[in-house]
Write a structure and sequence with these properties.
single chain; 307 residues; alpha/beta; Quinone Oxidoreductase, Chain A, domain 1; Rossmann fold; 2 domains; 7-stranded mixed sheet; 5-stranded parallel sheet; 14 strands; globular
Length: 307
């Protein structure tokens, strides 16, 4: 099968499309013909080893000292080819989508994951590429929106509202009845409004800390980029309000959240946001684009054309 191999930690040019052996189907696993995946911010962090201190050594210990031992990619959107003898939740022919940040392997035409990982039946009204735009931002945003106990009547500010996590967080907070304010650049104001934000702040012109008070402030960008902007976030909080970052804690992905994303997408209440789509052979260009740090929503890679 064709897959992307990362030959070292560093720039996107270290990614190469090669012929590799297909992964082995285990008794508790499912084999998926992968039609589409996503290049996430997490993928580029691992590829570039963009971590400090002990985290760099942890990544090397887990994935490989000189280069990742595993095929990268954590998002799958494809069709089940076969299932292990112990699997009852899925069957051949099922169209599925999901995420596994530990096993990875999704930059490939065939993926074998345990059936117990975060997988669900694909939304019937979405293409494989559109479905691939749901899990990363949707599952991470679901974790934090739930942890922050966002509910009806809450005033919620989402910093970085136009990224993969931010676009999902805007929609999920709105679904829970919150009044959402998004913070993004000038070019993305209309996008964030279209997702349901009641108001939008252009961070290139205005200081969001003067717009409060907010019950919840959620930094959907991460501290590498937002540390300075979020330094005075407490000034915009209402009494008893809370501010948190996507980097605070390790998100737990739940199949129930993925099923909810499917239901919301099928009902038209959640819209996948895709900035650009690349082919598998354009994986280097896809990573270069994500590295720029200005993508809107998700960057998708078509693995098998015609899906």
């Amino acid at each position: 099968m064709r897959a992307v191999v990362c030959t070292g930690y560093g720039p996107p040019d270290l990614l190469q499309v090669r012929e590799v052996r297909e992964p082995r189907l285990r008794n508790n696993g499912i084999r998926i013909r992968n039609h589409a995946t996503a290049v996430t911010a997490s993928d580029t962090l691992v590829r570039g080893l963009k971590f400090r201190g002990w985290r760099r050594w942890l990544v090397r210990a887990a994935l490989g000292v000189r280069a990742p031992r595993v095929i990268m990619g954590m998002i799958v959107s494809g069709e089940v080819e076969a299932v292990g003898r112990d699997v009852t939740a899925f069957k051949p022919g099922d169209q599925v989508f999901g995420m596994d940040g530990f096993r990875a392997g999704a930059y490939a035409e065939t993926v074998c994951w345990p059936a117990t990982t975060t997988l669900a039946i694909k939304p019937a009204n979405l293409t494989f590429e559109e479905a691939a735009a749901l899990p990363y931002g949707g599952l991470l945003a679901s974790h934090f929106i739930r942890r922050l106990n966002v509910g009806r009547g809450h005033r919620v500010l989402i910093y970085g509202a136009s990224g993969a996590i931010g676009t999902a967080a805007v929609q999920l907070a709105r679904q829970r009845g919150a009044e959402v304010t998004g913070v993004c650049s000038t070019a993305n104001l209309d996008l964030v409004r279209s997702l349901g934000a009641a108001s939008v702040i252009d961070y290139t012109k205005d200081d969001f800390t003067k717009a409060g008070p907010f019950d919840v402030i959620f930094d959907a960008v991460g501290k590498r980029k937002s540390r300075q902007a979020m330094a005075n976030a407490a000034a915009a909080l209402a009494p008893g309000g809370v501010s948190t970052s996507v980097d605070d804690g390790f998100p737990k992905t739940l199949r129930s959240d993925l099923v909810l994303l499917r239901e919301l997408a099928e009902s038209g209440d959640f819209r996948p946001v895709i900035d650009r789509t690349f082919s598998l052979d354009e994986i280097v260009e896809a990573h270069r684009y994500v590295d720029l740090g200005h993508k809107k929503g998700n960057v998708i890679v078509t693995v098998l054309a015609g899906g």
